[in-house]
Fold this protein.
Amino acid sequence: MISIFISYSHVDERFRDRLVVHLSLLQRQGLISLWHDRRLQGGDDFAASISDKLEKADIFLPLVSADFLASTYCYDVEMQLALKRHDAGKMRIMPIIVRPCDWRSSPLARLLAVPKDGVPITKWADEDEAFLDVERTLRGLVEARTSAAADAVAPTATDRPAEAIEIPRIDLDKSAAGAWRRIDARKLHAPTQGLLFGSANGPDIRLFVSFAGETREWRRNESELRPLTKLDPTQREKTYLTMIYPYILFPTSKGEIEAYNMRPDCEGSVRHEFTLSAHRAKPALARFDESANRLLTADIDGEVVVWDWESRTAISRLHPLHKPVAFMDLSLTSNVAVTSRDGHIEIFDLLSSRSLKILKADIAGICGGYFSGSDKYIVADDEAGRREVFDAKTGTKLPKNQWSTVAVQKKTAKNTKTSVVTTADGTVWIAEPTARSKDEYVPVDMLPSAMKAWETAISDNAEFVALAMDKTELHVWERKGPAAA
């Protein structure tokens, strides 16, 4: 059972009462036990009792408001002890923002706050909806800690290779390879940094290709890639960061990230639209996780910032031990893998910003480190095209004969949920959601190629797929028949 300590100002007692009501099902299910200072009885030593409960608690829930931040006991005693235990890996802190206040200037700013995006409970149209969001987030945290505790006492067999069970094999001879045709293949003069479809409506196909610090536009039947023009060089550095359609992001030497809009109505040009500010040094790397709507950025000093893209706010800061940072990836379970150039892969917990483990690849010059589709594996790539696959839990390496079942990347079309999936052996699959669950996919087709696919993109209508093959070759495929609805 997970022990939870609730810290609050007595001015916010009504929020504590509602929180306890919403967490009652977790208590009935035997998953948690709750404690707060109203549980003290006559004659109890106030300070000693609170200190004892804090030392034994697994999760600390501060109900954050201006009164909480102003409270000497809440802020200077309870929160400071909780932060010390949190940083030592002995406790998890999940701030609950109950009323508007300047909590982002406090030590809690580096932690992921609830409700969603740190919006105060009083700002929600329905406070019960806000508390439900809190309960669901806490349930996930409790279940994760309960599972981790079970794994810690369960016997392991690290001397055996991990089992890869993510994607079933499909016989190439039996795949419907004829359902797709390649409509373009060209060599680029530098490795591809990103692919993104802007639109694909009939003959009007817009594909953005980033390489050599710039982004160009691919269109059907055009021999050259169009440069994106009218980008004021005095407003940003040359280095490209990433694309989040319809935006393309560039860093500045001031530590800012400038977003330019590249919608079709811009007549081929782009315009500055907003700026993100969080880094103290120049941002050098960015990666967007579409499924979680999170942006991960790293600066030249190695600090990693995780952003909520919808609100454009920084929700977590990570400080990896090994630098410079070469790649970042976010897992389904809110872990972050930060890969360094020297081959170290450090796993962080997003909610606490705490480092969980460090893996070491035998290859150097690392340029990529991905969680697999089910988070069971981590795939590391170097610039020479070498690859290693690790079991994310045990750190053991997966034999090459099992790579064909490990999903490295999955890009999903927004309108049809069709996905393009690449496996660790370089195979490219077209996958569709199963009838049983929209979150389960089954491969239905294979795009044949003798080269490894490093980067992929699929149009919103699932009619087109773009592949960066062996990093410097661009392939574009078109579906012959109509996409699945």
